[in-house]
Amino acid sequence: MPRLASESLANLGAGGDRRAVQRAIRIGLWTWPSFTLLDLYVCFVAYPGAPFRLFVLYRILNELLLFAVFRASRRDDSDPKRLFKWLVVCFSSAAFSVSLMAIHIGGIRSPYMHGISLVALVWAALIPTYWRRSLPTFSLLGLSFPIVMGLAATVSPAARAEWMNADALIVFASHYVFVVSTSILGLILSHLVWNAQQQARKIGTYQLEEQLGRGGMGEVWRARHYLLARHAAIKLIRPETLGGDDRSRRIALTRFEREAQATASLGSPHTIDLYDFGISDTGAFYYVMELLVGRDMQSLVRTFGQQPAERVVYLLEQVCESLSEAHAAGLVHRDIKPSNIYVCRVGLQYDFVKVLDFGLAKDYRRPNDTLTEVSLGHTSGTPAYMAPEVILGDTRIDDRADIYALGCVAYFLLTGHLVFEAETPMKTLVRHVHDAPMPPSQRTELPVPPSLDALILRCLEKDAARRPQSADELSQLLRACRTRHTWDADHARAWWKEHLPDLV
């Protein structure tokens, strides 16, 4: 996936890209041992009388602290702002350990204080930041040696007497001016790189903040509007990242544009809202959509397991509402799958479903429209959720293909398994065409009402004529399914409070 900024902690202080946090800390983990090697060289070669065990211990503690921050950054709930503060602690401790070592191997005359300059430059290289935010850090790095020197002079009268003379202070100043200059230079470079990254992250009137995901149609970022107090999700694709020949690039861009147009034409509350669409100053195609708070159905099942039948019915009815409008407009989604259906919190409503990613949508009322028949030379869709007629290349595909895919989604929600599982995508496609599915009730320990069991199998019929003929009909049949319990807004709110309290 193309990166819009360098391998750094861009915009970290504002709650930025966690992946960039991990990359920068990983680089730091490789940088710290080089300082340890420098310490060993100084202790054994340049200053053989220095207490090297103590200095190596300092460096090992720095490395362990940085490793702990790296582990914390890998958690899904890690706070970038808190990570930033811990990184300040890591680099400050490194500067203070260099200062302690310099005091031990030459006092205020020691040239080893130049090691502080290395710490400042590494910070500037890894963590570009707005200058006001990084000023306290660079000040702390630059002042580390005077602070350690002052403490040493306080506890050691002999050291104070040795240092308080003109010659020693002149030597100290000649070394320290380099440290100060490097800190100022690092502050300037850090800000310049940060500013360049901010310019690279501008899309229209939005500022990209954190990458949320990537896929075949591009990448998705969390973004903030410059003037409005509103966050959004931006999906974008850069022409130069498509690769291949001109035809492949045109196809991908046409698909992207059609997805934006198809989404914008729909008004169901259960279809993701589209705010804007266009081309950025750098030539990237993008559209701005609402930022969803919740989990897609794929991660919902992977994280929390099989879902109860009553909740599955509750969620599927909302998907049907979105598809009903799309089908009425002549659009077949063609890529209905768990990762394209979000279970959200919208205001005070929980378990509110949003259908997204209309990149493969086809207007079946206009079969000769070239804009609806873009393809990369293979069957479009996801093998685990493709209807038999789509796999066989039937030109008369209609909304019943989405009904089949939605049956596969229901099967996955109830059982945690795909309808057909095989070693390769091709074998999966073959099974969808020829094999009869096992009833979902036989693949889960949770109770599945016979009426729901039969309805899902009906959605999975090979012959489209034997499936529910529309999303409206499927919605009515879902409401007719009698589950042991009911699922409503109160049950949804209680579930979110228990399992996703941070999003409530």
Characteristics of this structure?
3-stranded antiparallel beta sheet, elongated, alpha+beta, 504 residues, 3 domains, 16 helices, 12% strand, Transferase(Phosphotransferase), domain 1, Phosphorylase Kinase, domain 1, 11 strands
List the helices and strands in order: HHHHHHHEEEEHEEEHHEEEEHHHHHH
- The residue fraction in helices comes out at 40-55%
- Global shape: elongated
The major beta sheet can be summarized as: 6 strands, antiparallel
Low-confidence runs of at least 5 consecutive residues: 1-16, 369-379
Arithmetic mean pLDDT: 80
- Structural class designation: alpha+beta
Provide the CATH superfamily of the largest domain.
Transferase(Phosphotransferase) domain 1
CATH architecture of the largest domain: Orthogonal Bundle
Strand content: 5-15%
CATH top level of the largest domain is Mainly Alpha
How many distinct beta strands? 11
Structurally, how many domains make up the residues?
Answer: 3
Radius of gyration: 30 Å
Gap from first CA to last CA: 32 Å
Number of helices: 16
Strand adjacency order, main sheet: 1-2-3-4-6-5
- CATH fold-level topology of the largest domain: Transferase(Phosphotransferase), domain 1
Task: Tell me what the structure shows.
The chain has 3 domains: 12-200, no CATH class; 204-290, Phosphorylase Kinase, domain 1; 294-503, Orthogonal Bundle (Transferase(Phosphotransferase), domain 1), CATH 1.10.510. Helices cover 52% and strands 12% of the residues. The chain has helices at residues 18-46, 52-73, 80-104, 115-126, 131-155, 157-163, 166-200, 246-264, 297-304, 309-328, 388-391, 400-415, 425-434, 450-459, 471-480, 489-499, and strands spanning 202-203, 206-215, 218-225, 231-237, 274-279, 285-290, 294-296, 331-332, 341-346, 349-355, 362-363. Helix 5 (131-155) packs across helix 6. The model is unreliable at 1-16 and 369-379 (pLDDT under 50).
